[in-house]
Design goal:
Layout (H helix, E strand, L loop, with lengths): L7 H7 L2 H8 L24 H13 L8 H8 L4 H11 L6 H4 L22 H5 L1 H11 L11 H9 L12 H25 L5 H18 L10
Helix pairs in contact: 1-2, 5-10, 10-11
Bound molecules: zinc ion (ZN).
Amino acid sequence: MDRGEWKTDLVHRLFDDISAKAILHIPFSNYDQKDILKSFTTRSGNYSVKSAYFTNHQSKWGDSTLLNSHKWKKLWKSNIMEKPKMFIWRLISGAIQTKATLVVCFHVEDPYCPFCSTELETVEHPFFLCPCSQSLWFTKWGLRTDLFSHFSIMDWCNTILNPSILFYYQGIDEDQFTSWAVFFLDNFWQSRNLLIHEKRQLEPQQFLKSISQCVNAFLEANKVPTLPTYP
Ligand SMILES: [Zn+2]
């Protein structure tokens, strides 16, 4: 903009046709003041690193994402142990680097899953598509996760937080399932790292036992105390 007029050539050069048209229709202010940067993602309009981060994630996932869902906010506010909660956050934020994601930027000799060695280690594979994790989901919950091979990791996390679709007829305690699943994802990734870095094999029975202990301890610690009853 210069002397109250848009530099139309410059606007058309910098933006696509639709954006350029929209910009050229913006009316000028009657006040003579300097241009400033404004953010639409903060109430004050002040631009910050946080608002840029939020905008970036919004553009990635849109408004109807898990991060904006009621269930996610409930989990985030809950007293569930910080570590598994942070792990889910990292998982759906794309911060967990599996071999198949690393291979895009780096030389990775073996992009295959360390458990089954047959499938690429995508971000979905270890957590619900690998035969190793599938057997654990099935043993504990009778759940056939192979039926969800079309799911993204976001879909799977959303299902974990909203599990009624999985257990419609079975009367499973949804909170218990969600707590178990959140601990499972975090612990399974730890087992994957131990296998890669220390060659320590996952022991299914021991693994399931330790998850159950964590969940029971967590549920016990967060149990709402009931009032004593008097005759
Ligand atoms: Zn695998």
